[in-house]
Structure formats: C-alpha cells, structure tokens
Automatic annotation (TrEMBL), chains A, B:
Reactions that this protein is recorded to catalyse: (2R,3S)-3-isopropylmalate + NAD(+) = 4-methyl-2-oxopentanoate + CO2 + NADH
Domain Isopropylmalate dehydrogenase-like residues, every copy: 4-349
Co-factor requirement: Mg(2+); Mn(2+)
GO MF annotation list: 3-isopropylmalate dehydrogenase activity
Protein name: 3-isopropylmalate dehydrogenase
Gene: leuB
Organism: Fontibacter flavus
Length: 353, 353
C-alpha cells in the first residue's frame, strides 16, 4: 500500500516522540512492503513562532492531502497564565479539529501488566480495566457562539450548543464500538441541569432500538467522575460531549498507571488523526528523556483505524510489549533499572519489529 | 443561645438521616444549654407529590425565617431518564440555592483512620489528604440564559456566564480559608478554552496581591481531574465554577473511602445551609439502613459556620469518631461486625454526646 502521512510534531517533547514513531512506521513499511511518504508541518507554539498562527493554512493543506495525520503535542508555558494573550497554541489545536472535522475523539483505557503497579488505584480495582471513551470533539462549549465579554469587560459568557446530527454521528460510533466489544454503552450527561444534555439523552434513547444487542445506561457526569475511580471495570464504551469528555478522559488516563503509554485517535468523515494523550511536557523537551510509547501506540491505532491494517498494528503493539518486558524503557518507567533515552527506545523498537 | 433551624428532609433516605441529626442537635442543645426550635418543610420529589412544586413558597419562607437550614437529599428515580419531564426534583434544589443566595458550596475532603482502607486509592496516596473545595453554586451554566431548544427541537443550548462580582465573592472566601489553612489556593478553570474561565483567572490574579501570604496556583480542570487521584495531598483550598465544582467535588468525595461521611455547607450572605454530600439513595429508603454520619457531621459544620460554636461542633465530631472507634455503625461500613440501624446509630450518638 502507498500511504501519505502528515507529521505534526508540535511543541515540547512532540518532535522527539514523533521522531520515534516515524522510525517505527518506517520499519513497518519495510517489513510489510508499504511505501510511506511523510510530510511535516508546524502547529502550536512552534507554528506561532514561525508564522504567527498556531494552525497555518499550509499545515492544514498538508493534512488535507494526507491519508492520516500523526500529531505530537501542543502547548508552551510562555502562553500560560496570561488570560489576555491574543494567540494561544491551543487555538491552533481547536481550529485544526474543527477544520479537519475530527468530531470523534477515541480514547481507550487499558492496563499493561508490567505497569499496573504504578496505578494510584488498588490492584483489585484496576486489574482488567478495559473501556473506551468516544468524546465529541468539534462541538459544544468549545465552539459555541456567542462567547466573550460584555463591553465593560466585567462579565464573560460561553455557549454550549449541540444539534441532533452532531450527537447522532458520535453516538452511532459508540453503539458500533459497543457491538464489537462487551455491548454496554454509557451515555454521560448532565440531563438534570442542561438543555444540551437532555438532547443528548433523548437522541441516544431514540437510536437505542436500532442497536438491540447493546445495553444502554445513562449516568450523570458527576456520578461517572466517582465511578471511574471506584468501579472502572464496570465500563465498556462511554459517549459524551466535548467538555465532559475532556475532564473524564483525563481522569480515566491516570487510573491505569500508564498514562505515558495511552494513544488516541480523532476521527472525521474523511480525515483521521492520531496522537498520544499526554501533553507537551515542556520541562522534558530537548532532553531525549520523554517516553515515546504513547505516540508509537498511536501509530499502531493509525494502521488499524486509518488503513484497516490490523496485522501491522499488532506488530507495533507486540514490539511495545516486548520493550516493556525487556526493560527497554525511558526513565519515567525504568524504576531503578537502566533508563534508555527516547531515541534509543525508538531505535530498539524499529530494529526489533 | 436560641436557634431556629429549618429542616428540609427531602427524598429517599433524607428523612431518616435528618431524623438522626435532629436527635444529635437536641442532645447538643441540652448539654450546652441552647434552646433549639425546628421547623420542617418539604422539598424535592416529596414536595412535588404534595404541592406540584419541588421548592414551594412555604418552604422558602421556612428557610428565610430560620438561622440555619439542615437539608437531607433530593431525587427520585421516577423523575429520571425522562428528558421530557416538566417538573424535576433537582429544579427545586437549584431554585432553592438561587433564591437563598447560597453562592458558596464548601466541601471538605479528609480521611478517617478507621475507614481509609476503604479508599480505592493506595494508602500512601490518600493518607493525610486534607483539602477543601469552594464551588460557586448560584451562577455559571446552571442558571445562564438563554437555554433551551430551537423551534424544531433539533438543537439545544446552554449559556455559561459569570460576572466579576460573582467570582470575587467566591474567591475571597477561598483566599480567607487558605489563610487559616496551609496557605495554598488553586484556581481551577479552563482558561485555554473558555471566556468565563479567563475572567475567573484574571479576577483571581487581581485579588492575589491582597493576600500576600497565600500562594496561588492556576490549573486546568482536566489536569485537576487527574491530580486529584494522583497527588491529592498536594491540594489545600480549591476554588472553581459551578459545573467544574460539581464534577470535581464528587470525584474528590470518593478518594477518602468515606463518601458516606462527608458533610458540606452552602453559604450565602444571610443564609447558611448544611447537607450531606451523598444522594437520596432511593434503594435504601425506608429500610433504616442509611448511614446518618454525613448528616450528623453537617450539623457539626452548622454549629461552627452558622453559630460560631466550635465547642459544640467538636463535641459532635468527637462522638462520631467514638461511634466509629466502637463500631456503632451502619451496614455500609460495618464490615463483618454488627451492623446497627440508622435509628440506633442516631440514638447512640445522642446518648454518648
Ligand atoms: C489543550 C486543550 C484545548 C485540549 C482540550 O481541552 O480539548 C486538551 O485538554 C485535550 O483534551 O486535547
Ligand atoms: C442534583 C444536581 C442538580 C446537583 C448539582 O449538579 O449541583 C448535585 O449533583 C449536587 O452536586 O448537589
């Protein structure tokens, strides 16, 4: 197969972890006989520094002509804590999601036997955890209008808005995923307070009869925030709106003890983007110490979700597991054993694939 | 002292747990020589059944003429999962908060040595946890207008809105609490996305110089959702808006392992209300098995926050600790030991105060 992959390294450790994923993707191409073209483009603070825009038109064009996008991370401390900053790296991320139509953010949570002891939760609570969030990513309060301030600047407002279509296309993805998994779908909302949540619940209730093999549960976002910690094994597929998804997927990411390894996919009708869930870790940037495994596993998701190549995806997952088993890991998970550099882990994965 | 206390038992187990708190409050009155008058009024589903309104005017009047309000819980399954229901018990709760001006919800999280093993978190993560949330309770997306549907019903919207005044009065409470505690204030927002959050951050930044002894940190809501599980001991006082507070205080409530014991206060300029953080547990209602300790500890908060009577508050806390030490507890925490009835625990507390 011939594939065009856009590389958006972004900020902080982004370039370093993307570089390792590229090594692994190239090794997959060699092993399975695929021709893979890469095209790189700036995004985030890196793009602001270059062009003044966190998501330049040229970067958008690079994504549009690619078959899949591999994304690193965005964010730079020089733009934080300045509520009056005019351009922020995150705006680039949001604009990218919207312009590429990436309406579904898929975030699996699962455990690695060799890392589960790092979970803040007790072993019996977290062992065997395996659920996946479908977070709506291009709607809700992230994009709703009007938003801003009154004239005097003493009052601020944001608008949360959802249409039935937006809810339906996200919910269908969740239903379909549930059909292939343990057949439980949890709709997470705040229907006891929000009009948008009531439309979510109503829409999901209307769709449910089309998926008679899927059991649907409705839970309030505050209850899920509790139960994710108490009984994370109870969940299979969860669907939710943009803001609730932001909070809950991050909460979910730490329970497995392997936050640094969790991949994600952001899916649109045409374009699919893959990225580690961790941030840009500015403190670690340039030190060759960042853990590249989440980005490498995001590349595995790419072969599966974007190209339907399950064997290639599995080969990556296998070599990641091998690196964990043999202790070829970065300092964040080395635990007294030898800590390998980011680039060394990437080299090892590519060689051992 | 002479005190008028409004009792709003509400739904589910509300009446049973309030009845135990009343026994304890009466015992305090006897011991310390206070004359305490109680006036009871319906709220929630109970009030809908009686009057069609979840927060009837008469209940409001009872609260207005009281010095403090003791509240049970609200919510009934017959109103859940019906997105089209016209009246919902929760509307009563929200209207009550707004009409009484209860703008600050104070939710402490701490541990009980005898219950800490019930925490889903590992002991070393949770031992010694001691923080308190100040959640804004009468603003934000809970009340903002416009909210509702478009004409065809295919689109729904909610409005998040905050004024500088609303943020200021809540933030000042947080600063003052931090001054009396470990002098760390965390402002929780989503300033990288929301206009309202940027006003929160800006307002807190402007207030900070007035409290030079308090260290202020700014964290995104998604990061806090993670760190509450990973490093809960890092927090002291947290301030946040209504919706974030709803999610995060519930998340916080389960980490101590003693969710069933956590009290709360909702403070306004004139009126102060006290309630357990747990819900109405309809499954347990009428069985005399509900744990009354959170409501009893809410009564302790009442003596402290509403009447400035710290000795009385301490006497309640002491007798609760004694009941835990001696195993006079309900089935949810009895663990193989004898399980006492709700009413038996209340009697024991009143007798042993
Ligand atoms: C950086 C921020 C705008 C973003 C979000 O809130 O969506 C991030 O937290 C995420 O979840 O990808
Ligand atoms: C019942 C509901 C409206 C309420 C809220 O969201 O405020 C509850 O979750 C709470 O936190 O007291």
């Amino acid at each position: 197969m011939e594939m065009n992959i856009a590389l958006l390294p972004g900020d902080g450790i982004g370039p370093e972890v993307i570089a390792q994923a590229v090594k692994v993707v190239k090794a997959v191409g060699k092993k399975f006989g695929h021709t893979i073209h890469f095209e790189e483009a700036p995004v985030g603070a890196a793009a602001i520094d270059l062009t003044g825009d966190p998501y330049p038109d040229n970067t958008h064009d690079v994504c549009l002509r690619a078959d899949a996008v591999l994304f690193g991370a965005i964010g730079d401390p020089k733009y934080d804590n300045d509520p009056k900053a005019k351009v922020r790296p995150e705006q680039g991320l949001l604009r990218m999601r919207q312009k590429l139509g990436l309406f579904a953010n898929v975030r699996p949570t699962f455990t690695f036997p060799s890392l589960i002891h790092k979970s803040p939760l007790k072993l019996e609570r977290v062992e065997g955890v395996d659920f996946v969030f479908f977070r709506e990513l291009t709607g809700g309060i992230y994009f709703g209008e009007p938003r801003g301030r009154n004239e005097q600047g003493t009052k601020a407002f944001d608008t949360n808005v959802y249409s039935k279509e937006e809810i339906t296309r996200l919910a269908r993805m969740g239903f379909e995923a549930a059909q292939k998994r343990r057949k439980l779908l949890t709709c997470v909302d705040k229907a006891n307070v929000l009009a948008t949540s009531r439309l979510w619940r109503e829409t999901v209730q209307e769709l449910a009869p089309e998926y008679p093999d899927v059991k649907v549960e409705y839970e309030f976002v505050d209850a899920v925030a509790m139960r994710l910690i108490q009984w994370p094994k109870a969940y299979d597929v969860l669907i939710t709106e943009n803001l609730f998804g932001d909070i809950l997927t991050d909460e979910a990411s730490v329970i497995s003890g392997s936050m640094g390894l969790m991949p994600s996919a952001s899916l649109g009708t045409d374009i699919k983007l893959f990225e580690p869930i961790h941030g840009s870790y500015p403190q670690a940037a340039g030190k060759d110490i960042a853990n590249p495994l989440a980005t490498v596993l995001s590349a595995a998701m790419m072969f599966d979700y974007a190209f339907g190549l399950k064997e290639e995806a599995q080969a990556i997952t296998d070599v990641v597991n091998k690196s964990l088993a043999e202790g070829v890991v970065t300092e964040d998970i080395a635990e007294g054993g030898k800590a390998f550099k980011t680039s060394e882990v990437g080299d090892w994965l590519a060689e051992n694939l």
